[in-house]
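Sharing a chain and its predicted structure for anyone who wants a worked example. Both blocks are below, sequence first, C-alpha cells second.
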Amino acid sequence: MFLDDETLQDIENSLVTSALQSHDWDKAVAKIATSTGARGVVAIPLKGRVPGLPMSASLEAVADGYFRDGWSKNDYRVRGVPKLLKTGMFVDQDYATPEAMRSEAFYADYLRSHGFQWSAGLMVQAGNDAWVMMMQRTIQQGPYTLDEQIALRRLIAPLNRAAQLAHSLGEARLTGIADALETVRNPSVLLDRTGRVLRVSSGAERLFGPDLTVRLGELVVPSDAQATARLRAHITAAIWSDPQAVSLASAPIVIRREAKRPLTLRVQPLRKAGLEYFDGCRAILTITDLDDSRELAGDILKTLYGLTPREAELCHSLLAGHSTGECADRLGISIHTTRTHLKKIFVKTDTASQTELMIVLSRNFGL
C-alpha cells in the first residue's frame, strides 16, 4: 500500500464528485479500498446512530446485522475512540489484545463470521457531526503495519475536505427543500436522524400553538403526553424502518383540538447514500389540517404530465400522505403494480424519488 500524491488527489476528486452526485459514492470508496489495501470502506457516526451507513458494496453483508442484531451498541472498537479523538486515527492494535480479538463477541462472533477482523479508522468531521471512516480488512489480509498507518494519515485531510463540502451542499439542499415546502399542499417539517426539527415551513408554523409546538428541538403535543409519545414512536419507526401497512410508521398520528377538526401528522423517510448522510436531514413530516383539506384535481395531472387516470390516482394518494402499500390497497392493485406505476410517473415528471415527486407536484399546483 502506498498513497502517493497522485493517488490522494484521485481519491479526493472522486469524493468531491460523490458529494455532488451521490450515485458516484461506490466509485469513490472503491478507490479508497483499493489504495489502502482494504476489502471495504464504511463510515460510522461517533455522535448518534443513523438508519444505515454509507459504505462500499463489499461490506453490505457484514453491515446488514450491524444495527439489526445490536452490534452497533456492542462495537468493541469504541475503545479506540479516545485515541481517534486525540490523533485522528486508530487501528485494532491500539485497543484490542490478541486475546480480546479471539474471545470478544464482536470479533469472534460478528466480524469473523463474515471473514473480517482487521481495521483502521480515520476521523471525519462535518458541521456538528463526527464520523469514523473504517477501512476493513479480512482475516487473511492482516493488520495495518506501522508504515501503512503513516500512509493512511495522509487520507485524513482529503476525507475531511470532502465531508465539509458534502455538509455545505446538504445545507444548501435543505434550504431549497424548505423553500419548496412553502408551496407544498400540507404544511411540513424537516427532521434529522434523531427526529429533531431542522426546518419548518411557514404553513406548519401557523399551526403551532397549544395543540402542537416545538420544544427543545422536538415536536410535542403540550396538553397530551400520550400523543407526544405516539408521535415520537411514529417518527422513530419511519426513520428507522421500511414502513409496512401495519407498522407504526404508516399509521398517521391524530392530534385532537378544541372546537376544531384534528390535525394528522405523517412522516416520509428520506433514504440516503454515500456522502448524503452528512447533510443531517432524514425525513419530512407533513401536517394535514382537516379544517382546511383540499383535493387534487386528477385531470390537471393528466394534462400537465400525461399521466394515466390510475397514475393520477396514485399521485393523489401519495400526496395525501399514504405509504406505497396503503396506495396499493386503496387502488385495489398489487404492490408490484403500484411500484411499476410509480416508476412511470418518475419518468413522466422527471423525478427520482417519492419525496422529490411530492415537492415538484405540489410546487407546480401551488397547493
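Comments welcome. The first strand starts at residue 40 and ends at 45.
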